[in-house]
Amino acid sequence: MRKNNLYLSILIGMFMLSGCASKEVKPKPENFLTLADLSGRVTLKEDSPGVRVIRIKAKAFIKRNDIRAAKAKALEIAGTQAVDEMVRELLADEDYNDKFSDIEQYLSKNIQKYIIKSEVNDEKKIFGGKYYGIDSAHKVDRQKVLVAIQKDLKLINNSASSLVVVITSKKDIDLSASGFTFKDIEDAMMNQIQTDLNQRGLRAMDFRNAVTSAQTDEKLKERFGKISKEQFMAIVSGSPADKALLNTQIQNAEEFYTTGISLLRELAKVVVEVNIFAVNGNVKGDIALSLNVTAKNISTGRGGAFANSVVNVARRGGASVITSSMIAGLVKDSYADMQKEFVPQVIKEMSTISVGGNPLIAYELVLKDFTSKEVRSLRTKLKQVESDDFRYISFDNSVPTIVTIVVRHAGKTEDLGDKIMEILDTKGINTNEPIIAPDLTDLVFVRIPDED
Questions:
Q1: Residue 276 lies in a domain
Q2: How far apart are CA 428 and CA 440, in angstroms?
Q3: Which of 126, 127, 343, 389 has the fewest CB atoms nearer than 10 Å to its CB?
Q4: Is the pLDDT assigned to residue 94 strictly greater than 60?
């Protein structure tokens, strides 16, 4: 009898356990991981001026429990977002906002063309195990992205990325003893500057190319065809016609300078003048180069110099040293000195091409445990509040209990979060506040059950 009772107790216990096991165990709120919970360490380096390392957090829905496919999709999405961020850095905000859909469609066709290397720094299942999230970093080729939006999409005005370089000298420098001429130094310096800045995504040209490129009218071509460096710099500095150098050679001098600066502003944003003071040597064969380099922004009315640097470099001579190679080395050394402070200032000035406002950035509003009616109501309201700073894009309700609404917002992430919370508050919907964090474009709103 006791044995029968024992068997019966065991059977009842097993039945109860199997019943409990058959029930679906819902994930606890503290286990509802979001992209904010992903945090890894980036190892990629910006090892050249032509690349940017951009960090992106992204997610993808896990289909048929295939983690590998979800991770690959998340990495693809992250790569697209990284290139999009590079585009936002290169374009004026108003240009980007007007054409973001065209840009997205064009670049998405071959996104890996613009990415040199990618890495996943952290990864895990998120959103109740329905999505796979990654924290990633991408080394983006700035030059290729620039070419795409400049030449293919034609979204960059050449003048915004163009600068004119002029090599001058107010002294008659005699280099005959070394077998060199001043023009040799001029050409070497020009090549150094143009090569480096062109590799950085800018369009650098000497003053002669700038002048000939501006000759769209035969009359202007006749007047500007023989312009000298002195006249060119007089135009840049805004010298009055009666004080400008060599103005006596030009009829209607005032009109010449006024027209000249108007043409130049259409062609370039900045003029860089390298004024060589002296090239000196001594009996021991030592040689030194002294110059002053100045950058002026001519694209705005206020204009004026924004960067200036005096460079002095020297090399020791000797019995076996060739003077011509010494001069070539001095040019290289002087530009290396410019790269420390002067060139970064120029690049910074050239990159500030935004007219105003903020770029529209894509955000995903993730809604958990909302009813269908509540989601429809929110979508309707978001469409009603569209403006220059906010756009409704699309939504996805393919995952049970989770709905994703894609929007674009210009401004701070916390302002977008407040906007959504205010809409939900007016509709009497209680939610937890979304997590706001750097590199995070997912705002998660978890529905709080109504009190009975």
A1: yes
A2: 27
A3: 389
A4: yes
